[in-house]
Design brief:
About 70% of the residues lie in helices and about 0% in strands. The radius of gyration is 19 Å and the shape is globular. It has a single domain, classed as CDP-alcohol phosphotransferase transmembrane (TM) domain (Four Helix Bundle (Hemerythrin (Met), subunit A)). It has 10 helices and no strands. It is mostly helical and about 280 residues long.
Length: about 280
């Protein structure tokens, strides 16, 4: 998985030391993962209660534990596919929801009528690299300049600023931001980004977040073989396409698809791609 420069130079060495000092070898890494999920859940509760100071602290704990569980697993030789499933499952459910509500609520005060549409667009972006991973065996969650770790830091900073300045920090429906029409344009950009990523990687044959030097040095035969049959991979891709098309005219129906279809699709793709 491609990692950012900030992660390689600063965050990874820091979490290496922190994980070794906080967790003895007998602690199972899945316990750390579940602790992170608990922190994300509490952060979401704090966000909805507009207790943004507590939410910032809890979200930092979640992102830290999310980094340390894998490091602890590798250090103690306790890596497992179940651990990978739990890690990405928590990130893609409660973690994604907490991050989305931090930005939509604490920053822009997004109208309730826009809630599912915004969360749907965000989840499409998160699902896109997992679709690609079904075919390439490689999971890209960012680039060398901007990755999921920068998103974690930005969310924590957003919540900290909201606790100091008051929330929402901005009025997302104000004319200066273009009102709800601008929100629709932003969501459309999210859909375009997710679709372009899937198409680009399908046509070019590698993750767009992978450094060019790495792509050039690695022959196609060295790529990790997919674990799934072609029919299964394409079936899951079509399910993602149906989910992606939900908000468009004559789509499957956004309000019914998001609360019920999203967890099923997410867990199916994770289990198929990671287990």
């Amino acid at each position: 998985m491609a990692t950012s420069i900030l992660y390689d130079k600063v965050l990874s060495p820091f979490y290496d030391v922190l994980a070794a000092r906080l967790f003895p070898d007998f602690v199972h890494p899945n316990v750390i993962t579940l602790m992170g999920g608990g922190c994300a859940s509490l952060a979401l509760i704090a966000i909805r209660a507009e207790a943004y100071g507590y939410a910032a602290a809890l979200f930092i704990c979640y992102s830290s534990l999310d980094n340390m569980d894998g490091k602890h697993a590798r250090r103690t030789n306790q890596c497992s596919r179940l651990g990978a499933f739990l890690d990405h499952g928590i990130d893609g459910s409660i973690g994604l929801l907490a991050g989305y509500e931090a930005v939509s609520g604490a920053v822009f005060g997004l109208a309730p009528s826009m809630y599912w549409r915004g969360y749907h667009a965000t989840s499409c972006v998160w699902l896109a690299p997992h679709v690609v991973a079904l075919f390439t065996g490689k999971l890209d969650l960012g680039t060398r300049l901007l990755s999921v770790d920068e998103a974690f830091l930005g969310t924590s900073l957003t919540l900290a600023l909201a606790s100091v300045q008051g929330a929402p920090l901005l009025d997302g429906s104000a004319p200066i931001f273009g009102g709800l029409e601008r929100c629709d344009a932003l969501f459309a950009a999210f859909y375009a980004i997710s679709a372009a990523y899937v198409v680009a990687t399908a046509l070019l044959g590698f993750g767009v977040g992978e450094p060019a030097s790495s792509r050039a040095a690695k022959p196609p035969a060295a790529a990790a073989p997919p674990r799934l049959s072609g029919g299964t991979r394409w079936a899951l891709t079509l399910a993602y396409a149906a989910f992606w098309s939900a908000p468009w005219p004559n789509g499957p129906g956004l309000h019914s698809l998001m609360p019920f279809g999203w967890p099923v699709l997410m867990c199916t793709m994770l289990a198929a791609g990671l287990l």
